[in-house]
Every structure is written in C-alpha cells, then in structure tokens.
Amino acid sequence: MGQALQDILPPDYASGRFIGRALAPEGPCVIALRGGRIFDLTETVASVAGAVERRAFDGGRDLGPVEGGLPAGWGLLSPVDLQCVKACGVTFALSAIERVIEERARGDAGKAAEIRQMLEDKVGSGIRSVVPGSAEAAELKQALIDEGMWSQYLEVAIGPDAEVFSKSPVLSTVGAGAEIGVRSDSAWNNPEPEVVLVVDHHGEVVGATLGNDVNLRDFEGRSALLLSKAKDNTASCSIGPFIRLFDDGFGIDDVRQANVDLLIEGPEGYRLEGTNVMGQISRDPLDLVAQTLSEHHYPDGFVLFCGTLFAPTQDRDTPGGGFTHKVGDRVTISSQRIGKLTNTVTTSRDAPPWELGIGAFVRNLASRGLIGRI
C-alpha cells in the first residue's frame, strides 16, 4: 500500500466508524475500523454491499490496532464491491464552463485559454447565480440561446435534470495505493477529486468516501457521445481509502461542508494543488442521489461521485497548453473528515489487468464456504 493506515485516515479515525476491503492471500475480505482497531468481518458478511444492506458493521475477528497495519500479505482494496458505480457531472459552475470549453475547443487543449476567458465573461456570473431547474434558470437558458451561447453542458448545469452516468463496471474500481489509468492515446486529461456517497438499495446514504473520476478531456470534448470512452477505462476509477459511515459524529452536513484537496506531483518536479469546495456545489448531494434513483432500482445499492469544482488549467509544458497527466504523476486526494486517497498514474494499457470480476469473486467466495454470506 505504501502508507501506514493511520496516515491515510482522518485525524479523528479512532472516534469514527469505517468499512472497507482488503486482499488477503485467500481472497477479498471485508474489514471494519472501530475504536482505532481493525476487524475482519468476512466470516459474518462477505461483501461490503451486504454489510451496507444488513448494517452488519459490528463484531468480527480483531486484527489489532490501526497503527499495527494490516496482517502480513494483505493489501488494501477499493472499499466497494457489488454496488453500481454512478457519477454526476457538471454539478459546479466552474465544471460547467470547462465542459463547454472542451466542447467548443473540440478537445484541443491549445484553444482552451481563449475560449475560457470568453465564456467566463459571458456565462460565468449567470450560472453561478441561479438555482438549477428554477424559473430564473429557464430565463437564463433562453437568453443564452438567443446569444448563441447554449450548450448541452449548460442544460445539465442549470436545467432541471442532473447529468448521471455509469462510471465503472461492478468490481472494477481500484483503491488507495493502486495505479490509475488514462488511455495511452489521450493527450488532454485530468484527475477529478470528488466525494463519493455510499447508498443502500432503499436510497439511504450510509456513508462517504473519496474518489478520482479520471477524465479524458480530449475525448469528451470531441463529442459528448464519447463519454464512455472518456470515463470508463482500465483503472480509471479510484475509490477509497475507506467508507466513513454516518453516525452521531459524521453525517451528510459534513459532506456538504467538506473541502476536497488535490495534489499532483509530477516525475519532473511539477506540482499542482487545488481544492474542491463542496459548499459551492449547484445541486444538493441528496438531490443528486434522488435523481440517480429516479425510476431505477439498485438491488445491491450504488456509490455516487458528486462531481468536482476543480478543473486543472495551470500550464505544464507550454504556455497556453494547460494541464495533462504524465505517467508517474502522484495524485493525492484528501479531506479532513474522510481520509486520503493516493494513486500513481499509468496508462490503461499498462495498468494491471482487471481480473477479479463478478464470476471470479463468486467462485472465490464459494471456495471459501462464504457464498451464502454475500
């Protein structure tokens, strides 16, 4: 994993409750952190999705204090397993402007700076001042249409319906310490530091974690119909380090007030910092959950990326060229009450292949006599 558990947990971890997953020599295990100690819950509940549904967070085999780390031969995994992985986009005014930039630049990073200034001057104040779906938003939409400034991205930024998409297949997410992937043929891409809500099949939010919704700006910029190629690639979705469960000391209001910090450290000495301020989100997180549920049903629950305010525009190599990842970038996403998620960038082509799919997961649990405890 590369870091001690206490270094990737929030400072008040001993007073919080956390659930996650680890890979033991025999296979995936469900682990909980309570009172500063680690517990293996797998003999009672063999999936995080099952633990969420049954609220099976207590008990388990005591593995020792957090400071002692996981047992030898164990490694941390993404803390979600059978849940669907959903994401909302364009939930902040700045991200709406950046998506319009991608669209108008047709994925060409070199054109972005000029378009960014023009859009900020004409659109920025408007989309910051209206409530999505309101009468005022409808009036702004018509005014922008009249000026030839309308975009499909502004529709989901200020219209009644949020953008909701499937980010990553079940069991494909990577966790803290893993490599994250961008397509080898992408020339303009970036991390997206986000809060990820954990929701049961009734639609109740039970906790929160952190995520990196890795994005290819050149692909989506060429056409919104390339969203799946821009978002869903091997190792392109990182979640972790643990799910912090809601309790008397941590709840949805803490999510609403969270700051999510991003640090990118490049192999050539490049450094970029930014913050995703959840207080500036255009739609309330619970509204995003409700829109994701809509007329759908998620029997194993789902996790939901809430979107990001932060879009890195700081030039990296050439003036006006903006930011894009390089292999070897170290990306750290952190939030005071949730923890720290660190990953190193590689290409999706070269990332470790995704092999523990649903079939392999079920076969592993069956071989361990745990299939009935999912």
From TrEMBL:
GO molecular function: hydrolase activity; metal ion binding
Keyword Hydrolase: yes
The Fumarylacetoacetase-like C-terminal domain, residue ranges: 205-345
Source taxon at top rank: Bacteria
Signal in keyword set: no
Keywords per UniProt: Hydrolase, Metal-binding
Pfam families given in the database record: FAA_hydrolase (PF01557)
GO terms, biological process: small molecule metabolic process
Family of the protein in this entry: Belongs to the FAH family.
Protein name (Swiss-Prot/TrEMBL): Fumarylacetoacetate hydrolase
